[in-house]
Amino acid sequence: MFDIKYKLFIVTGSARGLGKGFSRAILKKGGSVMLSDVLVEEGHATLLELQSEFGEERVGYCIADVTDKESFGHLWSMAENKFDKPVDVLVNNAGVTHQVGWRKCLDVNIKGVMNGNDLAIERMSKKNGGSGGHVVNIGSTGGFVTGPDLESAAYFVSKSGVVTLTRGLGSKPAFAVTKIRFVCLCPAYADTQFLDTDIRKYIKEQSKLQILPVNAVVNGFIQLFQSGENGEVSLLVKEKLPLMTWPNYEWSFVLLSVVIGAKIWSSLGYKGVFDAKHQLTCSIGAFLLFYILLRLFVLCTLF
């Protein structure tokens, strides 16, 4: 389990909503946070609120545009200068909906995340003289499905990119070079300012998903950071359901299918050594069946 205490976090998009919730949870567990947002007035208000609660020495704020790598780099340097230590964790939380237009949606949601991941590799990577670290990318269940209409397509494309990026950077070959752990949290609809009247109406009338309280997503974030494996992508679809983690679920199904396949073959009376390949065939068939059922379960849950 990875500890939060004494670690320095950068949390983008933290003036309000999930980013503010993540920051407060980190501070409660003994970490330090550099807040960042383009919403200056709300950013300063959040800074003062958290400083009054946890102390000025543990919270900072810097205006940064995640779509501009130079601005992002300035944020990183400001964090290290204020706290006089290297950044341990980057939380790529800044995001927008498709309602701002498809270009800006892709710029913030995928280019901004890529800028953050690129900086993390430059500043924390073992190959560049760093000591490694952690990156938490905030995706969405939208990264696994397509949107309900033409207008929302860019949002779903951007979140799919975040999922794929995390899996790629979280691969074993990448970790061998960087020693940076990349994980991704993909919550369903969270009860934040992003949910306007139209979106709430769509959720109520057409979606099987519930609107998640911010605290539920924050709890999922803490759980993923503390125990998530490198490259892990976890879905949070309902408040009372645990995180659905693809690697863990799939390996569980692999093991289960091997056992079931062997049992089926043995029950038919074929137990000889030369029947190993037939047992393997049954196991593969069982795995594919369970794999398809798992995917169908997730899709049915999402819609």
Keywords for this structure?
about 300 residues, alpha/beta, Rossmann fold, 2 domains, 8-stranded mixed sheet, 10 helices
Verbal overview:
Helix 1 crosses helix 8 (214-227) and helix 4 runs parallel beside helix 5. The mean pLDDT is 85. It is built from 10 helices and 8 strands. Strand 4, helix 4 and strand 5 form a beta-alpha-beta unit. The two termini are 33 Å apart. It is 53% helix and 13% strand. The protein is globular, with a radius of gyration of 21 Å. The protein has 2 domains: 8-245, NAD(P)-binding Rossmann-like Domain (Rossmann fold, 3-Layer(aba) Sandwich), CATH 3.40.50.720; 251-301.
| Helical/strand content category | alpha/beta
Number of helices: 10
SSE string, helices as H and strands as E: EHEHEHEHEHHEHHEEHH
What is the CATH T-level topology of the largest domain?
A: Rossmann fold
Family: Belongs to the short-chain dehydrogenases/reductases (SDR) family.
Pfam family, one: adh_short
Keywords: Membrane, Oxidoreductase, Transmembrane, Transmembrane helix
Transmembrane segments: 248-268, 280-298
SSE blueprint and pairings:
Layout: E1 8-12, H1 17-28, E2 32-36, H2 40-54, E3 59-62, H3 69-83, E4 89-92, H4 102-124, E5 133-138, H5 153-169, H6 172-178, E6 180-187, H7 197-206, H8 214-227, E7 233-236, E8 244-245, H9 246-267, H10 276-302
Parallel strand pairs: 1-2, 1-4, 2-3, 4-5, 5-6, 6-7
Antiparallel strand pairs: 7-8
